[in-house]
Amino acid sequence: KNLIIIVHKDVVKRYLKILNDAGIHPFKFALSSQGLTEWFHFQEQKLYPTNKQTHILINIDSDNSEICFYQEGNILYSRNINYGAKDLKTENLIEIIQQIHMTTDAYYHQKMGLEPARVILISTLSDIQLMKSKLQAEYKIPVEPMTPLDNLPCHKNFKLNSLWNLEGASSTNGLGFLLMNPKKIINLTLSEAQEFSQDRVKKRELIKLIVLFFMAFILGASIFGIDYYRNSLYLKQIGKRIAQKEEESSQAQQKIR
Fold first, then answer.
1. What is the rounded distance in angstroms from the CA atom of residue 88 to the CA atom of residue 168?
2. CA nearest 87: which of 66, 68, 62?
3. For a Cys staple, 35 with which of 136, 173, 187, 197, CB 3.0–4.6 Å?
4. Phi, psi at residue 6, to the nearest 5°?
5. φ and ψ at residue 69, rounded to 5 degrees
């Protein structure tokens, strides 16, 4: 099976313009679902090393959520809905469940893969139990809540307070890209934007090379100048000593006479 990714050119241009106006010039424009699947691929090796079943990944961010069908490191189907963590404690929770139901209906109708074995509910919210119970009642399969930072190796002195304080915001996709091989990232950046970025990198490297050359030249000239000054000072000291000796010699000759 082949994964087909179709992104409208104007959509990519619009997002790139927003980033460029903010002074950010990305070299790669990637699919968020790939970050999500790579994150769970890492988790799967830790939690279910011998399990090759299909999972429904529901990544809840602050303003939107992503529903992804995953099997053995592959994206089977993915859909984004405009409901997030801010909607879980309101009447919109029913709408979220309906949107998830519509997504699974499309997955089954198009026969995209096997029957899911479990739902992975990814959120930084402390209270996710209501949504968990509703999903279990809907699908009759295990629903396992997780947070983006579960099972990730972290240095003991690494402070994660800033991430935990952003309750509702999800860093799952970004962490997934950090965990994967950069060469595997599907780059959706327009070819002209890639060429522009490459030209920027080449120009930046050329500027660095010119700056290093001038710094090396200035350093070499400084060393030469210091040596010249030191030698000149040494010759002046010798000249003074010679003049002093000549004066002493002249005074001694006058006394002898």
1. 10
2. 62
3. 173
4. -120, 120
5. -95, 125
